[in-house]
Recover the amino acids of this structure.
């Protein structure tokens, strides 16, 4: 399909919405609070993990997560003892509670101390990012497999669109040339990223003819990826700003 006419609109809107002002109402502001690579990664990962529902609530509760870790997330992940972990008691964001929070801290400790950190889990050039997300979920819960917590990391191989972790990967990988994404991961190409598909981006994509599939699932992500890559193969996920902006701010 020829998307040349749509590309003009998409390029314009992507340029307009990828702006530092975007941060003021988006959870990406949480990892922007840090300078240490590991702090940025952990703050981004945890913030993205709870990024569903009202954005003000997401930002409020992600801020609470950081405060409970003394605003030193990497140090807390690596060093918090059993007593210090009680600082997480009482946390809740929708279905993500203190038990899930503790599980994630302990599993992140394993990732950083024994598996080379978060970035290392996504730099396998022979696999798609979606397959690597599924592999990451298996590894993440390998040593501390709290059953109730598993639902908080999506699995594309089981059909999930994996919106939140795709958003996290966009934050980490896309360069910080316009002040929104952080671009601290240098081993992963932007060409491999997938669009964080949610209700807004999916509805706008269908209205523009970029997406025909009715379900917001893994197959829809692949279909949309193909359309976006036909417009910019090197950086298809820049169009997330266009789709999100048209849907949320312009009610397209």
């Amino acid at each position: 399909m020829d998307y040349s006419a749509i590309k003009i609109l998409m390029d314009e809107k992507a340029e307009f919405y990828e702006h530092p002002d975007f941060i003021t109402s988006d959870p990406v502001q949480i990892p922007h609070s840090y300078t240490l690579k590991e702090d940025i990664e952990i703050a981004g990962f945890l913030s993205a993990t709870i990024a569903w529902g009202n954005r003000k609530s997401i930002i409020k509760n992600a801020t609470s997560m950081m405060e409970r870790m003394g605003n030193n997330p990497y140090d807390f992940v690596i060093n918090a003892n059993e007593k210090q972990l009680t600082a997480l008691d009482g946390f809740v964001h929708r279905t993500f509670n203190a038990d899930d929070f503790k599980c994630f801290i302990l599993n992140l400790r394993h990732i950083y101390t024994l598996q080379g950190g978060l970035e290392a889990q996504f730099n396998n050039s022979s696999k798609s990012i979606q397959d690597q997300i599924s592999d990451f979920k298996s590894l993440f819960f390998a040593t501390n497999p709290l059953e109730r917590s598993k639902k908080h990391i999506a699995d594309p191989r089981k059909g999930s669109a994996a919106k939140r972790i795709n958003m996290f990967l966009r934050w980490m990988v896309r360069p910080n040339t316009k002040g929104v994404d952080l671009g601290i991961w240098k081993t992963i190409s932007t060409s491999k990223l997938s669009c964080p598909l949610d209700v807004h981006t999916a509805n706008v994509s269908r209205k523009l003819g970029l997406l025909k599939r009715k379900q917001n699932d893994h197959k829809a992500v692949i279909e949309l990826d193909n359309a976006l890559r036909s417009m910019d193969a090197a950086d298809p996920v820049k169009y997330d700003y266009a789709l999100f902006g048209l849907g949320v701010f312009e009610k397209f």
